[in-house]
Amino acid sequence: xxxxxxxxxxxxxxxxxxxxxxxxxxxxxxxxxxxxxxxxxxxxxxxxxxxxxxxxxxxxxxxxxxxxxxxxxxxxxxxxxxxxxxxxxxxxxxxxxxxxxxxxxxxxxxxxxxxxxxxxxxxxxxxxxxxxxxxxxxxxxxxxxxxxxxxxxxxxxxxxxxxxxxxxxxxxxxxxxxxxxxxxxxxxxxxxxxxxxxxxxxxxxxxxxxxxxxxxxxxxxxxxxxxxxxxxxxxxxxxxxxxxxxxxxxxxxxxxxxxxxxxxxxxxxxxxxxxxxxxxxxxxxx
Length: 286
Prior knowledge:
The protein is mostly helical. 65% of the residues lie in helices and 10% in strands. It contains nine helices and three strands. Strands 1-2-3 form a three-stranded mixed sheet. β2, α8 (235-247) and β3 (253-259) form a beta-alpha-beta unit. It is elongated. The model has no long low-confidence stretch (mean pLDDT 83).
């Protein structure tokens, strides 16, 4: 980052300065991710029964929004450069860009393995990837200045990098948005899960179903299970069978309530759309 700041002052490059600023946010993003991981590891309390796991999701959200802020600043500065394009030192641009690219490749390699398992780490990883794109932009800009003295390449490539940052961070934002809205985890086909549970002997209906993500890798599931009055088996055996089915859908925090009547459930959202979907599928197959 320091090398890029000095290089941008000497060369007058916006792309290099933008890349340096982004590398600063990379450090902040990784520090925020580490802090969130530490905080999420604290024990649950009576006031916070799920502990601090959501801090990792919030850290990912902050990192996403900071990426958008960076992109906005790059666009703003780039537009100004179109009206007043300074002369640039292509050799410095190219050399410093190569150094930045190597550093970012190493950082991305370190973060890559865990990025798919945690939105929090994914946020830091996206920062590094965006910075890698910035370094590539700096290298191309330096090469064009050296070869053709195309100084306008600097703001143009800056805008391209900004657009790539927005594109790459959109998936992360949608992942965070889904968790915060307590959307159904991607690993769960709710229709299939409920239908499979209802095939267990003794189960009449699965209703009042909820599945959501607390944080990456920690999915919760609750449901009411209406038991056939004629069922004579052990309740524990029935619960164990249902829990085994739920775990196959990557659900870890499972709460099931056995009922022999739905009379006390009038105020609850029964979530039995799977019955409609199943009946439509059966009708189509006939």
